[in-house]
């Protein structure tokens, strides 16, 4: 075991798979000698050579096209999109080509591609660098969407994503890159895609979230325990497509109340889908409507007011109190 930050765990996952599988390739803008803008790939080119880990031109559409071409030819590309706001330049390659490859070819071809990209608020990043755009990918048939909240899951989920025979959109929250360390096994291991994790056991209300909001949610749960003695179960989705509806329903059948927290804007996001599916499966077990705590339906705020825009501990606590007192 080694105490790693999330960025170190992500790098170690790529190192493990580059070492294990000669078809794995890592590429993107400045990922080679520089090691990426956040140093996620630092040292990998030196270890594995410039034919396995290499820089691309500043052209996201080219990165996406290269990934699709390599994927159908038997390679396992790990393509870095430097910031999530830049995916609009490669939406055709990701959503129209990679995600549809197996269906379009009648199973003859697959697209075993990982698209890695940083995202997320709380760091006062420039415009288009921190947006939460997972909703776009969740609505794309054929695309799996993974969002880890800690170093252990980050390594295991990335290894699972690289080994997956279909495309995976792997989102890395900027605020979590170096905010804390956790024990991570040195050897390769997998965390299954599509399985949520119960971060904190509880009996009075279920709090469902993902990414950096997991840590905010745990703080809110601790605060409610202190002030009201209420027991909050916190679930980390880890994968937002596909959803682990079984774990969510099991929890709601126990607590009979739920709220969902997401950093993204309110309308048509992961929270809305979670609420729809849980309601379909467990409405007779609910004693209050499921509430969602989200960012407002506006463009992500500039850094000066970013903290007011993002869901906070206070807003989550207020939501928990609302459903408990309903």
Major beta sheet, strand line-up: 3-2-4-5-7-6-12
What is the makeup of the main sheet?
7 strands, mixed
Helix percent reads: 25-40%
Number of distinct beta strands: 14
Radius of gyration: 20 Å
Low-pLDDT sequence parts: none
Task: Please give a structural write-up.
The protein is an alpha/beta fold and 326 residues long. It contains 12 helices and 14 strands. The strands form 3 sheets. A 7-stranded mixed sheet has the order 3-2-4-5-7-6-12, sandwiched between helices. Helix 3 (60-72) packs parallel to helix 4 (91-98), helix 8 (213-228) packs across helix 12 and helix 9 (245-255) packs across helix 10. The longest helix has 16 residues, at 213-228. It is globular. The model has no long low-confidence stretch (mean pLDDT 97).
Key traits:
5-stranded mixed beta sheet; alpha/beta; 14 strands; globular; 326 residues; 7-stranded mixed beta sheet; 12 helices
Write the layout of secondary structure elements.
Layout (H helix, E strand, L loop, with lengths): L1 E3 L1 H15 L3 E5 L15 H5 L4 E3 L4 H13 L3 E5 L10 H8 L2 H4 L9 E6 L14 H5 L5 E3 L4 H13 L4 E6 L8 E3 L12 E4 L4 E5 L3 H16 L3 E5 L2 E3 L3 H11 L2 E8 L4 H13 L8 E5 L10 H4 L3 H12 L2
Parallel strand pairs: 2-3, 2-4, 4-5, 5-7, 6-7, 10-11, 10-13, 13-14
Antiparallel strand pairs: 1-8, 6-12, 9-11
